[in-house]
Design goal:
Distance between the termini: 113 Å
Shape: rod-shaped
Structural class: alpha+beta
Strand order of the largest sheet: 3-4-5
Radius of gyration: 33 Å
Order of helices and strands: HHEEHEEE
Strand content: 15-25%
C-alpha cells in the first residue's frame, strides 16, 4: 500500500526561496549601515585630531612669545642692582604690547614695533609654520603692569572646516 501525503498550499520548498533573498538583502543593508557608521566615525576622529593639533600649536606659540618676553625684560635697570626692579620690569614690558584693544579676535590698537613680537606675529600667520586662517589682526599681547606684570597672549585662527574662529589665551606673570 502506498500512501500519498499532501502539503497545504504555500508551504512547499518552492515558496520558501524568496525569503532567503530578502534575508540576504536585509543583512547587506545592515552591514552597509555599519560600514557607513565607521567611515563617519573616522572622519570625526580626523577632524578632532586636527583640532587638537592646532590647539597644541597655538599653546606652543603663545608659550614661545611669553618666554621670550620674560627672558628679555630688564630686571636690573641697566645694570644698577639697587634700582627698583619692579619699575624696570614695567618699563621694559611696554614695547611688547601688541594690539591691546578689542575682543573676540578682532583686535586693534598700537602694533608692537619690537622685532621679537614682529617675528612672532609673522610666524603665527605664515603658512607652514603658523595656524590656518590666522591674521595679523587676530593676535594680541596685552600687558598689565598694574596687575603684577600680567601678560595675556591671545592667538586666534580658523581652519577650513571650522564654523567659528578658535582662540587660545595664555596668561602669565613676569617678575
Amino acid at each position: 500500500m502506498h500512501l500519498k501525503t499532501t502539503t497545504p498550499p504555500g508551504t512547499g520548498a518552492a515558496h520558501q526561496g524568496g525569503f532567503f533573498l530578502i534575508e540576504a538583502l536585509i543583512a547587506i543593508l545592515i552591514f552597509s549601515l555599519g560600514v557607513l557608521g565607521l567611515v563617519a566615525m573616522g572622519g570625526a576622529a580626523i577632524a578632532a585630531q586636527s583640532d587638537a593639533q592646532y590647539r597644541t600649536e597655538a599653546a606652543a606659540l603663545a608659550d614661545e612669545i611669553a618666554s621670550k618676553i620674560s627672558l628679555n625684560v630688564d630686571r636690573l635697570n641697566a645694570g644698577n642692582v639697587y634700582a627698583s626692579t619692579a619699575a624696570s620690569i614695567a618699563a621694559t614690558l611696554a614695547p611688547y604690547q601688541h594690539q591691546p584693544n578689542g575682543v573676540n579676535c578682532a583686535f586693534n590698537g598700537a602694533v608692537s614695533a619690537d622685532p621679537v613680537v614682529q617675528a612672532w606675529v609673522t610666524k603665527v600667520t605664515s603658512p607652514g609654520t603658523g595656524l590656518p586662517g590666522a591674521t595679523a589682526t587676530s593676535q594680541q599681547i596685552r600687558i598689565d603692569t598694574a596687575n603684577f606684570n600680567r601678560i595675556s597672549v591671545t592667538i586666534c585662527w580658523q581652519a577650513p572646516q571650522d564654523r567659528a574662529v578658535r582662540q587660545h589665551t595664555l596668561v602669565t606673570y613676569v617678575n
